[in-house]
Every structure is written in C-alpha cells, then in structure tokens.
Amino acid sequence: MSTEEFWNVAKPMIDVTEKHPFLVAMVDGTLKEENFKYYVVQDTLYLKEFADCLTRLSKSASTPEDAKQLEHFAHDAEHAELDLHNSFFKEWNISAEGATEMPNCLLYTSYMKRIVATKSHAHGLATLLPCFWVYMHVGKCMLKLREELGDSVKRPPQFDAWIDMYGGEEFEKEVTTYIAMVEAAIKKADEKTVKEMQDCFLMCCKLEHMFWDQADTLLKWPDLGGL
C-alpha cells in the first residue's frame, strides 16, 4: 500500500472538499469577513496543537534526520503559518487570545492528539498528513479558479495571501517531503498498521471538511445558560 492509495480511498471526500462553499467563496470574493475571521481564529488554535503534535512525533522519530525534519515542520506551523494569521489579526485589531475551540475544531485536535499520544509513530504521521496534503490540494484548486476568474472579481488581500501560501511552491515542497516520510513509514509497517494508518488519514480528511463547515456556518457551542 502507499500514500497514493490512502488518497484514492479518501478521494470522494476530497472531491467534495475542494468545492467547499467556504473555499469557493474565498476565491470569488463573496465570503463574508466575519466567516474568515472566525476561521483564522479557529485555525490559530488548531495550528498550535498541530505544531505540538509534530514536536511530539519528532521525539519518537527513528532517525535524527526525521526528528530534525519534524521539528522544522513544527517550527513552520508555529511561525510561517501563524505569522500569516497574526498579520491578519494586526490588520483587524483582533486576537485569538482567550478564544475557545469550537466543536469541530476541538473534535479534530482531540482526535489528532489522541492518536499521536496513544498510537505508533506511523499512526501519528498518517493522522497529520491531511493537514499538509489536503491544504496543498485545495490551495492548488483555488489558484486555478483564481486564474480562471481573472479580474472579473475582487477579493480582500487576506484571501489572496492565504491562497498564495497554501497553493505556493514552498508549501508544496514541505508537503512532498512529509509525504515521503509517510511512505517510508508505510514500507516498514505491517499490514494491520498500514490499514489503521489509512483509517487515520481518512478520518482526518473528514475532519478537514468539517473544519471548513464550521467556519461556513459560524458554528458555536450551545447556549446552556452561560455554562
């Protein structure tokens, strides 16, 4: 089995995700600023947990090279990606400080942290793969749509900055490197572990979709009398 087979199993979900209303609206300029702000705050909370998971995986890596690479990925999640988010916060004069993870964000980070903490290194690698690969994929799809629309629409500069990052060559290089690490883990794993890795990958592809659902609907926790 290979990461390509993981992708093929998840492809029906990914095909739907690449056309998610939230993502399409970012490109055609119809996404409301309120929804994008909500997304950026939630993604900031998510990325902090994602970076922590990468750091944890670096400590269980089988080679010093893999450990160093995973530390690099964690650093990029905490700095390159969060720097983009923080630049938005400065422009809007808002912050993610004190913000609460909303239901789908908490579901995603809780699942991710549980797998990294309780399963093998290989399981953890597969669990974090969709955040790399699906983001690159939708970024490329959004770049293509942006080119097709040309000057017919206007969008806030923050939307373009986001598309440029995740559809860009630098992010693609990181994703390619991470995929190679997962491929290596697959080759070393037994059949049962590989099947479980595939299940982890598929689950997180679903959670990626739900993360954008959450931002599209501005999902909140139920109001239970202030609790």
TrEMBL record:
Signal peptide: none annotated. InterPro entries: Haem_Oase-like_multi-hlx, Thiaminase-2/PQQC, Thiamine_Salvage_TenA. GO terms for cellular component: cytosol. Residues 13-215 form the Thiaminase-2/PQQC domain. Gene3D superfamilies: Heme oxygenase-like. Pfam families: TENA_THI-4. GO terms for biological process: thiamine metabolic process. Coiled coil: none annotated. It comes from the Eukaryota. This is Thiaminase-2/PQQC domain-containing protein.
